[in-house]
Structures are given as C-alpha cells and as structure tokens.
Amino acid sequence: MKKLVTNAYILDMASDEPDIMHKDILIDGNRIVKIDNNIQDEYDEIIDAGGNIVMPGLINGHTHLAMNIFRNYLYDNKLINWLEDAIYPVEEKLDQDSIFWNSCISCIEMIKSGTTTCNDMYFGMNKTVEAIEKVGLRANVAWGMKNDSQIDKFDKTREYALRYNYPGSRINVLVSADSTYNCDVEMLKACKDLAQELHTGIHIHLPETLIEERKVKRLYNKSSVELLDSINAFEVPFVIANGLYLCDKDIEILKKMKGGIIHNPISNCKLSQDICDITKLKQNGINVGLGTDGIGRTRTLDLFEEMKMASYLQKIKTKNQKPIEPYEILKMATIDGAKVIGKSEEIGSIEVGKKADLIFIDSRKIHDATINNICSYILYTINGSDVDTAIIDGEVILRNKMIMSFDEEEARRNAISVIDRV
Amino acid sequence: MKKLVTNAYILDMASDEPDIMHKDILIDGNRIVKIDNNIQDEYDEIIDAGGNIVMPGLINGHTHLAMNIFRNYLYDNKLINWLEDAIYPVEEKLDQDSIFWNSCISCIEMIKSGTTTCNDMYFGMNKTVEAIEKVGLRANVAWGMKNDSQIDKFDKTREYALRYNYPGSRINVLVSADSTYNCDVEMLKACKDLAQELHTGIHIHLPETLIEERKVKRLYNKSSVELLDSINAFEVPFVIANGLYLCDKDIEILKKMKGGIIHNPISNCKLSQDICDITKLKQNGINVGLGTDGIGRTRTLDLFEEMKMASYLQKIKTKNQKPIEPYEILKMATIDGAKVIGKSEEIGSIEVGKKADLIFIDSRKIHDATINNICSYILYTINGSDVDTAIIDGEVILRNKMIMSFDEEEARRNAISVIDRV
Predict the structure, then answer these.
(1) Which domain holds residue B397?
(2) For B271, which of A298, A318, A321 is closest by C-beta distance?
C-alpha cells in the first residue's frame, strides 16, 4: 500500500538548522521511501496536505495513560498526599475495563493534539497495550515496579518483551523501576538485570520532588543518580522522568548515560517544585525530551503546551531571554525525545527510511502574519487543537481532526461509565 | 430586541464560591434582564447553548492591539533592545491602514478565544477604535504618552473621552502614561490632571523589568509607586500593567488605590523577569486582573493560556501546591479584571442588570470525566479554541466558532498585505 502526501510544507527536524521544504512524501507500508518535488511514482492513495505544515509526530516521553480516570480528582496537592489520599485507594479498585477505556481516551487525546508516540509506565499494562494497539499509537510500555510489587510484574515484563520487542514493532517493552525512594537496592538491581536480559532500557522517576530526594540521601548518603551508578545501573539505557535537583556530580555521571531525561514542566509546576535546569543539561550534552506525565496531575496531554511551558520557564530560570532556541524546543518534542526513549533510528524526523509518523498543522494561524521564523510560530502560537491529520506507522489515524481508527464516542461513554462506577 | 439563551450551564462568577446553574438567560437589548428556570417571556430570538457552560466573557486587562504586526518579529529579546531595534523603527512607518487591519485581527483572535473586553494602549488609537467598533468588542482605549509625545495625544484623549465616556458606552477612554522611566514628573502630573478633568483613570506599565525600575530609583531615589504617590497620582484610578518588583512600602500605597494590577504572566516570562507575587498582592486586598500584553511579544491573545500560566507560576513562586484556588484565577479573568479596569458595575459576572457579555464553552472535553470541580476543569483543560459562542453587548459576535460581525478572511488578507508592505 503506497500513499503519496502532496502539497506539504515539510519541517523535517533532521538537520541542525530549521528548514521548510515544499515537497511530496511517498510512503510504502509503514516507511517513508521518497521525499522529493512532484513525485510521479505509482501510489494507491493520495493525501493532500492542503499547504499545511507537515512535521514528525510528537513524542511524549513520560505518561501514565490509564490515569485519565484521576483527571480532576483531588488535584493540586503534595506528591505523597496526592498518592496516598487520592490515588492509591482508588487504584486498588481499578479493573481491566477501567484501565482499557481510560487508556483509550488518553491515546485519542494525544493523537488529536499531535502526539504519535508515548513512553508509558503504570500497572495493568496488558489492557493499556490493548488500547494502544486498537487506537493505533506507537509506544514504549513498562510495568512500574515498587518494593511491594509482586513477582508477577517481572513475569509480565518478560512475557510482553519477548512478544513485542522484535525489529520494527510499533510497541516496545521497557523495564520500569518506579523511583529510588520506593525501590530498594535489591529491587533496582533486579530491574537492571532484567533490562540486561531483555536487551531493553529502564524507565524511572528520578528526582521529582525535593522531599523524596532528601529521603534517598538520608538513607544511602548518596543522591539517586549516585545510588544507581554504584550498582552500575547505567550499563543499560535509561529514560529518566523529571531530573530535578541534580548536582554537578550527578550531571557528570549522566553525561555517559545512554537515553536521557524527560522534562515534564507542567507536572513539575503542579508539584510546586523548582524549575528543571534543562539549559544546563543540554549544554552538558544530555538528551532532553518532553513529557506530560499522567493526566491525573497535569490535566492535558497536549505537548504543544509543554513546549511553551519549557520555553517560558527556562527564560525565568536563566534570566536570559533566549536560553534555548525555538527549534531546539521543537527537537525536544521530536528527534531528541526519540533519542531519549531509544527510537531515534525509526522516528523523530521525516527522512527516507524512517517510519511514517507525520502530523499536519493547520497553517491558517501561521499565515496571518510574516513567516520569518516558522519554529517560533509553532512554539508560541500553535496549540494541539491546530493539528489536522496524524499518520502513524503509515496509517491515517487522524483526518480533519477526527479519529479514524476508533469510535471516539464509544470510548468516552465507556470511560465515563467506568469513572462513575469507580 | 429580546434574546433567550436556553439549555445553559451557567457559571455566573457572581458569588464567593463557584456554582453551576442550569437556567435560561433573557437579554433585552444589551442587558441581562432575567435569569431563571424555563423562562416563558416573549423573545425575538432563541439561542440554544446546547448544554454548554456559559460564563462571563473574559476581560483582557492589558493589550496593544495594533502590535499584531510585530508578531514573530525579532522575538525573545531584552525589553530595551526589542523596543529600540525592532519596534520603534517600524512604528515610524505604521500608517492608518496598518493600525486598522492589525487591530481587527487582534479583536477577532480575542473574541474567538473568549475575550469580550480589553483595555488597550498604543498610538494611532483612532483607527484601533474604528476596528473595535466594527468587530464589536468592548474596550477601554488610551493614547500612550511618553516624554516625546506631541501635545496631539492630549487633544486626542480629550476629544475621544468627550465623545465616548457617556454612561453605557461600549468604548471608554482612559489616559495613559507609558511608564515612569520614559515619562518625567511633569508629564506624569499632566496625565493625572487630564484624568481628573475627564473623570477617568490612568493606564500605565509599572515595574515591568528590573532595569527600568532601577533607572527610576537612581533618578528619583524613589520607587515608581512612591514617585506616583508623591504627586498624589493615586487620587485617580489606576490600571497598572505588570506590578513586578514591588516592595512592602509600594504595596502599602497600592492598597489604597482605586483600580488594580494587571498580571501578564507570559509577557513577564518572555522578558525573563521574576514571577509577580500575585498571591501576596491578593492577600493585601489589591484587585488583580489578567492580560496578554501585546501580541508582538506574547504571540497569543488567548486568556485561557494566561490563566494556566498564572496558576502554574504561583505554585513555583510560593512553593505551595494551591496558593490560589482555580475559581480565584477565573475571577481574575472576569469580575476581578472588571474591577481593575473600572467596569465591574457593568460586566465581569452574569447578573440581572449587567451588560450581556457571555461566552459558551464547548463542554465535550469536560464531560469526558467527572465534574467534581468545574473551575479546575476550565482552568487546566480548556483552551481558547473551545469557545463556541460569544455575545457582546447583547449581540452574537461569535457563533459556532465563526465571527459573525466581520469578514475574517478580508481582515487577514489586508493584515498580511500591510505587513508585507511595512
């Protein structure tokens, strides 16, 4: 099945400087096979981009999809109070249906706002995987381990990794240790061993709040990063969500890490934490991607909002008007995010040979003034609601802002009935 | 002409605690005359709110409408460099057409994202007033005075104030001193005298950046607020844009002020300034509203984005997860903003006797989960693009997300041709 995307203004995110090309894109199956002017090859279907901007689908590097159920539930609280008073008691009641339908809603909201890949961590992931497959997202998934985790999560991780971690798979399985304050050293070692056995990476929350990081330091007389380094955990790739409160010594250790850090600016704000110094992390050559964290806290899965926040907050943090260029922020949501989650060979830019994960951005807002820097326009003026079309793995999943792969109304009805019940 | 709004979930913003009422609203001319269940009075037109949330139109307390022309132009810079290198040289070339069409675009973008009133300051305001009248916005307008201002701006202010400042007018005229660093004491006194003569208020930028505030202190050995107090300027009402770097003594002075402060969180971020301590200002009983500032800097006129930013930034500033309740943030964009700009007798809440300035918010996003706090939903999940309908002064200006009062495409075409020319 060959699809030809015509009339596209392509922002490919492939080079060091931004560039816009008015070219066609030929897709064969799930891959981009040609990018050129006026392609004359045979095709089965034509997709007119209507003069809109076509860029790589966005990559949400840290999510908890099933937590849609907690949206608006005992919001704006300290991390530990929010978890212990609001989240954990309800999590015990979550059944398979709850996880499936709420994961569906999250997948739909992400695709409608331009995200084509996410990196998810939670429990009951088998139903989240089912939702991801049905809606048609690309994803990494992981069963979050804590000290009280049953052996079952290790078995599930192994079972799903063996099933999904083949070359070219749309879904990949990582190992997940929840964090250093709720996983002891034995558990962290076991996670690292499992990741090595499965040739995959580890997804972890690492310093998210000051209280938790202090707890780790009191317990081990080491920072979280030093603790992981002391057990040689960084022999496997890491996706580190948050990366707050890192000292220079931590940064030295992380410079050698495979993977990188996912910055979640809205989630950090909502926990009233410091602003993560991603300017410094980037200057040290550490890959930095962007994430929304669970919708239970941040209330939106729109990565365009996270891009804006990342840019605004760095200006405050650094007292510099332009610490990170708009193009660099867009890279965090695309190619740099792909590097962090271990998928940059396949996605994150529009290039021949890569998977066909594309979004079309309605350019009417952009055309209403001079286009002297398209990236600053996308960053500061565009919202998720301006995304018109999303192609994932060569399939048109969103068209004219409508989900084509799934009955959105059915998902909403079921998610509401589940929420009412729980 | 009587209009009946039916099937509305009304968030009236009139009381201390949020409340949602499923009632009808009867509008006679430009005023709300009845709010009740199942109104049976005669009417000329029915407006079905379709089960959506109906709230007061938002109030943007600090704008420079004509600056749409500078959107994306030499963005992200120090205030003085941005003004002197980018803005002032082009401003000299701005003609009447430039100001008219760019003001039109700004009016349209505001209404489409739920703003029904703004408080504008710039030069060439006669053409901005024309745009505001034609598109159908409610506004305060003011000719910004600086030291080099010609006497002409005083004359224009007086002429327009005499024409527009009658009871019930949709447009009102304020006096504007640009700031304390570019208006000397004589100019500030002249502005105060003019405001007293015209029985109106003063719109001013007051500490916006640390550099400018330090300049004032060096010059007068007084803060900006102390300087104004020393000439008894606060005998007239003030709309103070920004309010950064205020000391306790300043706050003591401002507690007695009529009017208040307009917080522009995105604009402050883009100038890499400190976070304004609106939590403290509010605790001191000072009215605080919200603004976008000129689109030349902030790139969006969407007040929902400013509400989110105001909430996120206060959590960082105060290290408290809930320094200001969501309902209080919504008040800043409605009734509290109305108090700051001197219009709370007429707008800012949905009450019998007030002007009919209403917006309908598409509630599909809201219905997808439990409504246990509608205000936190509106604050954290809704964007300007979810606004479906806007009624201003009893007229339906936006319906099904389309501007009814003006040819939007014509405005865009003309704005683009003007930008290309300048």
Answers:
(1) 2-56+356-403
(2) A321
